Structure formats: structure tokens, C-alpha cells
Amino acid sequence: MSEKQIIVLDDLQALYVRAAEEITHFAGEAICTHGEFTLCLSGGSTPAATYELMATRLKLSVDWKEVQFFWGDERCVPPTDPASNYEMANRTMLSKLALNPSQIHRIRGEDTPADAARNYEMEIFRGSTSCSSVSAITPTRSRSSPATPRFTSVNGLRLR
I need a surface site. Which of 61, 107, 115, 134 has the fewest CB within 10 A? Predict the structure, then answer.
């Protein structure tokens, strides 16, 4: 595994572009090596611009039919609610890609929290049975510096 790097970019737009480029690079590498890529999506406003770039400018960089989409978290709202992490990802990226519904593993925010958590745990195991490894990058905000977006990369975790 390579050493951690801290990369400082000029502005948020440069960060979004770099993140989209890194994600698509990891996706291509994982698909070539493992035949698949698993991406754990985040919600909120931080990753929206990155997802938009992946679905437009970098759309041809990835064989999207080989990508499985999961979520790290969701709000307890229906999937069409503007506060839904799924809604944001669908609006900015998923709806713009030629995906099979079986590739999208969303958390059912419209269910009770206990039911949604229990069902999603089962969905993760069902969805991961075809995936031998996980390669994901998740855009988040740092707890120590909430105004600073941070992108955490996890590459090559073995599930079996």
C-alpha cells in the first residue's frame, strides 16, 4: 500500500475535478484487475459536483456496467426528498449513466430507521457476494475542520 499524501489544491473546483479523476482512475484499475468496482457514495453538498463531473466529463472513462453503488449513510426521508443522499446522487450522476437497477444498492430512508438498517445490512451482504474486493473513495467533511472537504480512499479491501 502506498504512503498517505496530502494534496493541496487551489480551490473547491480543483478539488472536485481531482476527486472525480481519482475515483474514475481507481474504478478503471479495479475493473481491469477484478472485473468490478464498488463505490460507496456519500451524501450532502460536498460530493455533488464530483458526481456531476464523473457522469459528464469523465463518463467515458469508466465501464459503468461493472460498478456497484452503495451508500455510507442516508437520511430518514423518501428517495425523492431533496434531503435524500440517494436523490442527490441520482440527480447528479446515476440518472445520467446507463445503469441496471441491480447496480444501485440504496438505503431505504422511507422505512423506519431500524427496518432500513436491518434491510441494508442484508443488501450489503447480498450485493457483496459478487464483489471480491472493495475499492471506494468517499467524499466527507473533516470533523476537525468541517469547512474543508476530505476524500478518503480505500482500495483493495478483501470481503471473502
Answer: 115
